[in-house]
UniProtKB/TrEMBL annotation:
It comes from the Bacteria. It holds the Pfam family Peptidase_M48. The chain crosses the membrane at residues 85-107, 279-298. GO terms for molecular function: metal ion binding; metalloendopeptidase activity. PANTHER family: POSSIBLE SENSOR-TRANSDUCER PROTEIN BLAR, SLR0241 PROTEIN. This is Integral membrane protein. Keywords: Hydrolase, Membrane, Metal-binding, Metalloprotease, Protease, Transmembrane, Transmembrane helix, Zinc. Its cofactor is Zn(2+). Belongs to the peptidase M48 family. The lineage of its organism: Bacteria, Bacillati, Actinomycetota, Actinomycetes, Streptosporangiales. InterPro entries: Beta-lactam_resp_regulator, Peptidase_M48. The keyword Transport does not apply. Binds 1 zinc ion per subunit.
Length: 300
């Protein structure tokens, strides 16, 4: 019973922590550390929620969760009281739902990217002025990347006319940062969770917060190679132009509802969090992530 109570408390702490984190702005001063914290909260919440139900169901066996599941698999004929049967079914159902939705979202995204790459092979062209970038003959402003093993950075002809050479360099550096750091994999679990809990305001806000932090992390990587003001003016130009919608499964340079927050951050940057604070966030995230699996493995 102690394990079940501890896991339930851990799930509650993660849910409250995610709710509070959506309103904090210190995350903008250390987006990579904040992304790691968000991932830790999400993984731990899922494992702790499932674990609390299973721990309560398997408590009479005194073997913990992992060993208890193995034991009940060989002794399923033994009598069990109804509340624990319900808890066992609910825990296994939640685990199956979370796993299935995550895999389904991943497969759906991979299919969309494969279709888009096939389309790009037919309609996109190479441009000598921007080597390694696919160009679409579209008058609207568009700049996005299609991540994957064969990642591609795509811009439109309208973008070439809209941006100055320095602004274009900044936007391409931003998209390259998305590709190198595989931000699509960071966002996928939160997109999947928003599908299974569409009624949850906290989940929706968590998804939006992580999406913004990913863009800010890419901005930080890009401004190592170019002027942050050029990236800011490029974002503003995208905002006033006839923007082309970013395809499903891709990551765009100017997508989202918080472009002005990114612009202000680029033009008037605040000091980064101190190194010791970032280390504390990373260490705390690692400990939090390890807590639920350890509780699963502990014998009764």
């Amino acid at each position: 019973m102690i394990a079940a109570a501890t896991l339930a408390a851990l799930a509650t702490v993660c849910a409250v922590g995610a709710w509070r984190l959506t309103s904090h702005r210190w995350t903008w001063r250390a987006p990579r550390a904040a992304i790691l914290l968000w991932q830790s909260l999400g993984v731990t919440w899922g494992l702790a929620s499932v674990g609390a139900l299973l721990a309560f169901a398997l408590q009479p066996f005194g073997r913990g969760i992992v060993h208890g599941l193995a034991y009940i698999g060989h002794h399923w004929r033994e009598p069990h009281d109804l509340p624990r049967i319900v808890s066992l079914v609910a825990g296994l159902a939640l685990l199956a739902a979370l796993s299935t939705v995550l895999m389904w979202a991943g497969v759906e995204t991979l299919r969309a990217r494969r279709r888009h790459r096939m389309l790009l092979a037919l309609i996109a062209r190479e441009e000598p002025g921007v080597p390694g970038v696919r160009v679409l003959d579209h008058p609207g402003a568009a700049a996005y990347c299609v991540p994957g093993l064969r990642s591609q950075v795509v811009i439109s002809a309208g973008t070439l006319r809209l941006l100055s050479p320095d602004e274009l360099t900044a936007v391409l550096a931003h998209e390259s940062a998305h590709v190198r750091e595989r931000h699509d994999l960071v966002l996928l679990p939160f997109a999947a969770l928003s599908r299974i809990l569409p009624w949850s305001k906290t989940v929706h806000e968590a998804h939006a917060s992580v999406a913004l932090l990913i863009e800010m992390a890419a901005d930080d990587r890009a401004r190592r190679q170019c002027s942050p003001k050029r990236l800011a003016t490029a974002l503003l130009r995208f905002g006033t132009a006839a923007a082309y919608a970013t395809p499903y499964g891709a990551l765009g340079a100017s997508t989202g509802e918080n472009v002005m927050a990114r612009v202000n951050r680029l033009v008037k940057p605040r000091a980064e969090l101190p190194a010791h604070a970032r280390f504390a966030i990373v260490a705390g995230s690692a400990l939090l992530t390890a807590s639920a699996p350890l509780l699963w493995l502990l014998p009764g």
